[in-house]
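Action item from last week, closing it out:
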Amino acid sequence: MTDGHISGTRRLGFGMLVVTGGYAITLILANAVGAVYIAGTGAAAVERVPVRIAGGLLIGATLCPIAARMPGSRRRHFFVWWSVVYLSTVGVIVEGRAFAPNLVPLATIPWDLVSQAVVAAVVAASLAFIYVPETSRGATIPDLPDGRRLFLGLLAGTVTYAVLYFVIGALNYALVTGPYYEQSVEGLINPPLQVVLVVFLFRGALLSVSLIPLVRTVENPRWRAWMAALTVAVLAGFLPLLTQVGRLPLVVLVASSYEIVLQVCPTAVVVAAVLGKGASPSLRTEVRRMLRGRPSG
């Protein structure tokens, strides 16, 4: 192996260690502070430490290789990663409150939002400082498409998520998860239809917004789609489900994992195709570029 490959491998491993430690330690400290000052946050703060570490490993193993390949300045990287990590978590909190209120008490939500913003900042800063040279230059906020394109992209992402949420969620409910919700296993509930509608429209819009900095930074269509899909699959799917290991039945966790992946990954690909940097005005052309791996422009 070349010296460059060895150096790259070491940096990747070091980055994973830092991101894992930063995520786990910050979240554990946030849980400890919440346990002292906020009712309802301390019951499982200590016993969930292994889960926090596992979550950090999952984030590090996913985001570090992506950050190592992504262009941009340190400030751009920080903006990209903070946006997608934090907004993905906000969406999870909102959905958790709707479908499992016992696991997401109303009293803890303000603290959860603040603490998760800090956690996202630690993860984003770790990725930016480890994988981006200090000499890198560039704008913090990426150029945005024109207003019409931006609106169409957000609408396409939101509608894609909403349709998949309804169709795949209904199938999964009918085939697997329905009895658990009907019996209120571990506090799972069936909220009113209007609440479900608001939740999946909100999550679809939030998911689409969270991906804009990333898809406006990566130029290669194929890499852009893969990076976006993998990132949200982990942050919006596997990571929050990992935090519920031992709380929810295994069947529900497994069923929810493939349900979420089938919802968020196609949404990410649509957002990458419509709002990606240099994306073609023709969706068909952009999909063709994704499949062939040709640069945009």
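Closing note: Residues 1-6 have pLDDT under 50 and may be disordered.
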